[in-house]
């Protein structure tokens, strides 16, 4: 089979697509013929050597990613009825970007009829995290929610989910195209984060008390600038780090204002719960209540170009890898 392999820590050029042994389904496993691979920003960071305290991987390794495809074969102890079913599965930070992947049957989530593989791949991983964050931060109707990185793959889903809960949503994105997208998705107010005075403009949109919930998908200085916009007694989630680090909010500062501070550890979701949330995300998508935004698709052989596109941040929403010869 063909697989996208990280040969060393470094830039996108270290990604090489080459032959690898076909996986065999072990006991309790299935082999999926992959149609589409979801790519997320953290994969580019790990490839570059960042975050090893969170993701202890070493090259060479097959690039990770959640997959959508068809079950080709099953291992011992697995119901043969899985064969031929359309599924998604979260493979992790390594092993997903290949024509074939082996994974435990417990990780499988059926794809509803009528949902294309591209849509399923685009929604299910970020959908799990977005739904989990909605529950963790307990977003409710009438609350004011600030979302940074609102035009990204997960940000676009959180805008829709918060709106669906009846919250007043203020989205932060950079540039005219991205802010227009966030507005289209239903945000009540949109702030251009490329402008130096964006925190003041966000404060105006949120009102004097600030945001009941801040969902920071950017981190770094942007996340740090968003923290003061949190209302006393509110919730602040520092789950994103595309800037190279999570928002460096001091726990004491949060405690002094009775702000509940959440971090990346809070969204390390057990597999059973992840499967449940993925099924919920796909159900919402099939019903037309949740729409992933796909900014670009690249063939498996162009995985390096996909990473360049993600790092360039010019595309809106998700970037996907399509696998040659896989049927939708």
Folded structure, characterized:
- With 328 residues, the chain is an alpha/beta fold.
- The chain has nine helices and 16 strands.
- Strands 3, 5, 6, 7, 8, 15 and 16 form a seven-stranded mixed beta sheet that branches. A six-stranded parallel beta sheet has the order 11-10-9-12-13-14, with helices on both faces. Strands 2-1-4 form a three-stranded antiparallel beta sheet, with no helix packed on it.
- Strand 15, helix 9 and strand 16 form a beta-alpha-beta unit.
- The longest helix has 20 residues.
- The protein is globular, with a radius of gyration of 20 Å.
- It starts with a strand and ends in a 6-residue tail after the last strand.
How does the overall form come out from the CA principal axes? globular
Strand content: 25-35%
What does the main sheet amount to?
Answer: 7 strands, mixed
What is the total tally of β strands? Answer: 16
Radius of gyration: 20 Å
Q: From N to C, what is the helix and strand string?
A: EEEHEEEEEHEHEHEHEHEHEHEHE
Low-confidence stretches: none
């Amino acid at each position: 089979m063909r697989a996208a392999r990280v040969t060393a820590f470094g830039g996108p050029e270290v990604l090489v697509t080459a032959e690898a042994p076909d996986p065999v389904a072990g006991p309790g496993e299935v082999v999926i013929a992959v149609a589409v691979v979801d790519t997320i920003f953290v994969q580019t960071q790990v490839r570059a050597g960042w975050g090893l305290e969170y993701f202890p991987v070493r090259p060479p390794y097959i690039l990770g990613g959640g997959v959508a495809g068809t079950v080709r074969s099953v291992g011992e102890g697995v119901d043969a009825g899985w064969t031929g079913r359309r599924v998604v599965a979260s493979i992790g930070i390594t092993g997903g970007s290949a024509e074939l992947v082996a994974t435990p049957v417990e990780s499988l989530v059926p794809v509803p009829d009528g949902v294309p593989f591209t849509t399923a791949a685009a929604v299910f991983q970020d959908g799990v995290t977005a739904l989990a964050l909605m529950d963790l931060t307990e977003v409710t109707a009438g609350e004011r929610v600030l979302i940074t990185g609102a035009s990204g793959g997960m940000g676009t889903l959180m805008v829709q989910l918060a709106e669906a809960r009846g919250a007043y949503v203020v989205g932060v994105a950079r540039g005219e195209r991205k802010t227009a997208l966030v507005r289209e998705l239903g945000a009540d107010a949109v702030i251009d984060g490329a402008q130096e005075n964006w925190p003041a403009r966000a404060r105006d949109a949120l009102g004097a008390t600030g945001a009941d919930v801040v969902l920071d998908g950017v981190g770094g200085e942007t996340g740090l600038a968003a923290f003061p916009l949190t209302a006393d007694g509110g919730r602040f989630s520092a789950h994103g780090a595309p800037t190279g680090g999570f928002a460096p909010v001091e726990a004491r500062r949060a405690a002094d204002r009775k702000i509940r501070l959440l971090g990346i550890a809070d969204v390390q979701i057990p597999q059973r719960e992840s499967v449940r949330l993925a099924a919920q995300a796909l159900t919402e998508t099939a019903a037309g209540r949740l729409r992933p935004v796909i900014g670009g698709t690249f063939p498996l052989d162009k995985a390096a170009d996909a990473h360049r596109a993600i790092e360039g941040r010019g595309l809106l929403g998700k970037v996907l890898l399509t696998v040659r010869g896989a049927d939708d």
